[in-house]
Amino acid sequence: MLLSTWATLLFSVAASSAIATRRNFESHDYFALHLDALVSPHAVAQSIGAHLEGPIGQLPDHYTFSAPKERGSAVENALYELRKRRRKRGIQSGSGILWYEKQRLRPRLAKRIPPPPAPRQGPPPPGRPQPDPIAVEALDDIARTLEIQDPIFKDQWHIFNTIQLGHDLNVTGVWLQGITGNGSITSVIDDGLDMYSHDLKDNYFAAGSYDYNDPGPEPRPRLFDDKHGTRCAGEIAAVRNNACGVGMAYDGKVSGIRILSKVISDEDEAAAINYGYQDNQIYSCSWGPPDDGRTMDAPSTLIQRAMVNGVQHGRGGLGSVFVFAAGNGAAAGDNCNFDGYTNSIYSITVGAIDREGNHPYYSEPCSAQLVVTYSSGGSDAIHTTDVGTNKCYIGHGGTSAAGPLVAGTVALALGLRPDLSWRDLQYLCIDAAIPVHLDDGDWQDTKNGKKFSHVYGYGKIDAWRLIEAAKTFESVKPQAWYNSPWLSVQRDIPQGDRGLASSFDVTQEMLTKANLERLEHVTVTMNVNHTRRGDLSVEMRSPHGLISHLSTSRRNDAAQAGYVDWTFMSVVHWGESGAGTWTVIVKDTELNEEKGRFIDWRLNLWGECIDEAKQTLHPYPDEHDDDHETTTGSVATTSVAVGTPPTDVPAIPTDHIDRPVNAKPTPSSSNGTPGLSSTSASAADSSPTASSAPSDSLLPSFFPTFGVSKRTQIWIYGAVALIILFCIGLGAYFFIQRRKRIRNNPRDDYEFEILDTQEDNGGVDGHASGKKAKRRAGELYDAFAGESDDELFSSDGEEETYRDIPDSERGRGEKRAGRMESSGDTGHGP
Ligand SMILES: *[C@@H]1O[C@H](CO)[C@@H](O)[C@H](O)[C@H]1NC(C)=O
Ligand SMILES: *[C@@H]1O[C@H](CO)[C@@H](O)[C@H](O)[C@H]1NC(C)=O
Ligand SMILES: *[C@@H]1O[C@H](CO)[C@@H](O)[C@H](O)[C@H]1NC(C)=O
């Protein structure tokens, strides 16, 4: 104990002097471990035969251990054995290792510079429209009043558009109230930040800056194309002076964290996104896995943990605000739900519209996209600062340029209301969004009184509205969550427009038990087997009949992989109660020899809690949560059925009883044991369900004992038996009712297969009674109708990739890995 405290102290001293890690992945293997706080990392090093390198970023009790390559597999085996033993015996196994992950170097993350525009089709655009004289005069007035003399200020149409009136961020009215970002600090995680640029240096925040690529305190751009981060920083906080233009929060501070110029380890990336997280309030991230329409990639568990750490402990517990660019792969058929950063519930995901208010060819749709804002496309791009003492850039674009404008807007809000939490700011973004192009984008009326489109999110952000709302916004209560059990489907997916539907009923009781009052994000983790991933698509219907297109088919994605424990996210259901039937429909629209099977899924509801006093922080994500070793076979629930009456199925903990530590809440305690916090997550192991002694079991061991006496077990199983009997009867009734309802439901617009009620509750799976109910009605619902890439763009679009390095998934589809140049590149600009 003393030793560990001492070691931690020593390391934090060491860490502050040499933050970025020097690792040699050619000669060594590296392991990230999460240790019990009471365990000495040195003792652990000894027990697994590895060298202790040091702590990982700001993650409490996380350390890196190393071993020479030739001994790496021995260490891995030791860790594996400890985990196995631990699972069997719970925390008493004594190793003190709560979690581990072998570390890898990631392929370089791609900047979200747009690919060159698809060749214009149709008639050439008319001559450039002229500025509106009254608007020009108004802008002159504003510049005079605010003493803005920056030479390109009047070209910064995203701030004040004198040609397409109203197509801007509507921020000048905010500035005129004296709200200019003073007090805010935004960090641009990118390829560097030119802190010597005249347009940035007065707002540069050195203490929040770091270079992880060439370790050192200054994130100075070094490579010839390290310009992206500086341009993004200019959009956020370019100084009001005589250089170039101004940022959205021109009296705010901006820091730079450089990670995109070389490959980076998970460890460094995890440290980077928590760097200076008590000072840096917002992290603006205009990058991600390649947007080529075939990559499906998420941050490693370690990085996900750093994000959770950021929202839970950054800014003194109010939470780091992560803003991610949605991605530029729309022309290649990509969708931001295939990117584990943009589909994180912790991210404000931002897509683009152009200065005419249209959807640009590159901006990716998805159900996780929160808002859009202005960027390149149509006749112009974003005008901002560039690398160099007094250099400007007129061609900044892509969703890369959209994200920072929202980050800058959030900075204005935090300058005024530093007490707002990361979730408050998501609410405010939704509140301040204005739907655009109601004629296109398949808008749905959402339960929170807004409109949502997969193409435009909740609409375009309006800075004035956001600030007005922020002035009086009452912080929402802490976050609660409900996780359904794993729902086994195990059925082949029919091809064509039909789909395979699986439903789960959430009762009010489950939500109350989970302390969950109303929804914000919804995530679905699923396993689908398929020989061609791109053929698949998934939609989800909520109890209120709202539809999330969780995934869309992708013509470029030929991976023989399906979805493996992939989590999709939706913000469509914000404001719904969550109670009722949730249906997930997996489709395989391509009629070909490529086939698949829907294996299982799990519904996760996130939102505001009922009782603040009872609410705990969510445990760290744990990759072993998704480990199906413990679920298959025991998952045969009655829940995969349309028409099951609301029963207390999830009260039967059919699975995950023998979960490793940090388990997400099991169905029996969907909201985690009160008192269980992320830092004392090991308590999960000693919870009654996890540590029930075998000798107490009334029934054969595959029946859970709930850790209670035989008498209580008799009572429980007796009750369960009664419920089952009751359900069979009621189920039959509801099934008939439901069939009627579905027939009458106008939203039910195509045929799908409905899994019949599986009455067996005892763990037998497979031969479901398999009655099929096929329906046909109305026309096919398609959120992207009229936006088909094939229709709108020539096939050239799909050949362009960005700055990504080729990855192993690229097969025959690869044509040329066009490296996008960022100098004057995109053919934008006048
Ligand atoms: C834009 O800001 C002005 C105040 O400067 C406000 O009156 C107007 O309503 C805002 N526009 C929208 C669409 O909210
Ligand atoms: C920002 O706020 C600080 C303290 O509240 C104040 O001293 C400073 O003058 C302000 N700066 C600007 C540019 O308004
Ligand atoms: C998934 O597909 C692979 C081959 O494509 C097969 O080996 C495996 O058994 C399948 N898994 C399930 C659960 O169907």
UniProtKB/TrEMBL annotation:
PROSITE patterns for the chain: P_HOMO_B (PS51829), SUBTILASE (PS51892), SUBTILASE_HIS (PS00137), SUBTILASE_SER (PS00138)
GO molecular function term, any single one: serine-type endopeptidase activity
Start-end of Basic and acidic residues biased regions: 800-819
Biased composition (Pro residues): 113-132
Domain P/Homo B: 476-611
Region (Disordered): 109-134, 637-695, 786-830
Pfam families per UniProt: P_proprotein, Peptidase_S8
Active-site residues annotated for this sequence: D190, H228, S400
InterPro entries: Galactose-bd-like_sf, Kexin/furin, P_dom, Peptidase_S8/S53_dom, Peptidase_S8/S53_dom_sf, Peptidase_S8_His-AS, Peptidase_S8_Ser-AS, Peptidase_S8_subtilisin-rel
Segments passing through the bilayer: 714-736
Gene Ontology BP annotations: peptide pheromone maturation; protein processing
Bias-annotated ranges (Low complexity): 637-646, 676-695
PANTHER family named in the record: NEUROENDOCRINE CONVERTASE 1, PROPROTEIN CONVERTASE SUBTILISIN/KEXIN-RELATED
Official protein name in the record: P/Homo B domain-containing protein
Species of the source: Endocarpon pusillum (strain Z07020 / HMAS-L-300199)
